[in-house]
Amino acid sequence: MERDMFDTMTMTKAVGGLCSTFLVFLLGAWLAEEIYHSGGHYGEQAYVIEVADAGAVEEVVEEIPFDVVFASASAEDGEGLWRACRSCHALEAGQHGTGPALYGVVNRPVAFYDDFNYSGALAAVAEVWTPDNLNAFLENPRGYAPGTAMSYNGMRDVEDRANLIAYLATFGE
């Protein structure tokens, strides 16, 4: 009788040897991890590298009040910024787009047009679109009036906001 070299018993021994070797490696890795990281993995840092300017105080940027910025605003520069607004708004009285007409918006009541469905969030934050209210709204519409339907992300630069408001103020005077 001739025995086959790879009979069932030989295969079982080979697979068992591979599995036990793998188990030894896993247990060795776990043991090494416990030895080198005793006290937990998320403890205090063992060595801190000192940095020369670690205690330096950040330079405080003095913010200029909006009234001062608005006093020197340029309506001509604001005209170029209007492009971002005109996809949803119109400057003709009573002509609405996705948003209400902005003709005479500066210093007029927030919910001015009866034929436009304003979101309640706007009426809750202001009664009149003063330059200061427009500035805060244009900077971050959803932050200023949570729940507003306006999907614009905001205009970060205060000079740009002042210029745009100065441009809008030229309509409906």
Q: What's the helical proportion of residues?
A: 40-55%
Question: Architecture of the domain at 66-169, according to CATH?
Answer: Orthogonal Bundle
CATH top level of the domain at 66-169 is Mainly Alpha
The name CATH uses for the topology of the domain at 66-169 is Cytochrome Bc1 Complex, Chain D, domain 2
Low-confidence stretches: none
Please describe the biggest sheet, giving its number of strands, its sense, and whether it closes into a barrel. Answer: none
Q: What is the residue-averaged pLDDT?
A: 84
Order of helices and strands: HHHHHHH
CATH homology group of the domain at 66-169: Cytochrome c-like domain
What is the end-to-end distance? Answer: 112 Å
Number of strands: 0
Count of helical segments? 7
**β content, as a range?**
under 5%
Overall structural class, as computed from helix and strand content, comes to mainly alpha
> What does the radius of gyration come to?
34 Å
What would you call the shape?
Answer: elongated
Domain Cytochrome c: 73-172
Keywords: Electron transport, Heme, Iron, Metal-binding, Transport
Protein name: Cytochrome c
GO molecular function: electron transfer activity; heme binding; metal ion binding
Task: Give a quick summary of the entry.
Helices cover 42% and strands 0% of the residues. It has helices spanning 8-36, 66-71, 75-81, 120-125, 131-139, 141-144, 158-169.
